[in-house]
Design a protein that fits this description.
Length: 148
């Protein structure tokens, strides 16, 4: 659905899943884009010695995980939609570090509609991301303003 409106979306609406690779090359590109070159993300030799999070390998950025969570909504509806919809807020929690080489699948569902009148209506969206073993690695609540 590319042009959702408040009247056409109901609680329970499910977004298409987003599948994201956390291969080292992807993590390295994210590090460059975000200017976060922390060796826990980018230096495999250092990470093997430091064993941050008890793992001898690099891990994805927390903000990369949040980006994956938010992209469930933005890929479907846009950061600012063609019809004027927009992200209102993102409240994310990280529950498990994402190991290098993982594939993460994020899913989302409209949890609730908030009726505040013309031009003020928005929906609350629950999003979660799991790694290839099915473990929860992050979850978020997103608010999205929808035109009437």
């Amino acid at each position: 659905m590319s042009d959702p409106t408040f009247s056409t979306i109901n609680a329970g609406y499910e977004f298409p899943p987003v599948v994201q690779s956390y291969a080292q090359a992807v993590i390295d590109r994210y590090a460059l884009g975000s200017l976060d070159m922390n060796p826990v993300h980018t230096n495999e030799e250092w990470a093997s010695r430091a064993k941050v999070f008890g793992m001898p390998e690099t891990v994805g950025h927390g903000m990369m995980t949040m980006s994956t969570l938010a992209s469930v909504v933005t890929r479907a509806w846009g950061v600012v939609g063609e019809n004027g919809g927009s992200i209102r807020f993102v409240d994310a929690k990280f529950t498990k570090p994402v190991k290098v080489g993982e594939t993460v699948t994020a899913t989302g569902k409209v949890k609730r509609k908030h009726h505040y009148g013309p031009g003020k209506n928005w929906v609350q969206i629950a999003v979660e991301a799991k790694d290839s073993t099915g473990d929860l690695i992050g979850l978020a609540e997103l608010g999205y303003n929808l035109p009437d």
